[in-house]
Amino acid sequence: MSTTLYQQIQQFYDASSGLWEQIWGEHMHHGYYGADGTQKKDRRQAQIDLIEEILKWAGVKRKVGETCPYRILDVGCGIGGSSLYFFQSLRETTDSAAKLQNRSSNEIDINVTGITLSPVQANRATERASAAGLNQETSFLVADAQAMPFADNSFDLVWSLESGEHMPDKTKFMQECYRVLKPGGTLIMVTWCHRPIDTPLTVDEQKHLQEIYRVYCLPYVISLPEYEAIARQVGLQNIQTADWSKAVAPFWNVVIDSALTPSAIWGLLFSGWSTIQAALSLGLMSRGYERGLIQFGLLCGNK
Length: 303
Description:
The protein has helices at 3-24, 43-58, 61-64, 81-100, 119-131, 170-180, 203-216, 224-234, 245-248, 250-259, 262-269, 273-280, 282-290, and strands at 70-75, 110-116, 138-142, 155-161, 181-194, 237-243, 294-302. By secondary structure, it is of the alpha/beta class.
């Protein structure tokens, strides 16, 4: 990852994460509003529902109790929202399974590691884990997802929720995810994509994407079929993909509404220009979904 892009991403999340947590809470990703995007629900519940629906789609909870210990890597962990919810949700599942099998829940060892480019996020995630009494089961560190500081075959599950769009080398990123997976392990990647390029992107579509890249510190995004091709190239097996654009598209209008509250406006004034610029440009993503340019892509597979 280039030094300039690394610094841009780090500074963006260092500056904006505190305000996001204040307004939205610990989850820094889309929400799920039903398969057709018509369900009305609390915004934070929608974000939790997204995690649960992804786990269900990938069949993860069926596998956790079969593997002891079970090691999870959260690539692009934010302030630990997904990681901590992940641990607690999977722990509840395995505790229930242990009771049915007349086993002690202590026999089922789950551990979650999260990485981010933002020291502010890593520190806040560590604080939140300690407050929840989970500092022994979770850890958070600053690391580059394209050069991870982990040995080969280290994790049973690699989970990347809305971080792939930041990667300047999509192939290198997926190679690293594959490298640190244990044989039989699962990769789940959820990322922003542009529409499939059955017909070339128009000049106007390219301009729209360039504005999104500029505001959200993205080098570029690719289509879901292109991600699937890379997944096959790096060696993933049992690959499945899905486009959940309709299910998550309402999220951006909800974010826009929340940004218009007095507390959000006041917070923006002290959060720096990059955060203000991102807030002023929220409509870029909303319009991207409306015109079919932006897609919310899911991919999972096994090593």
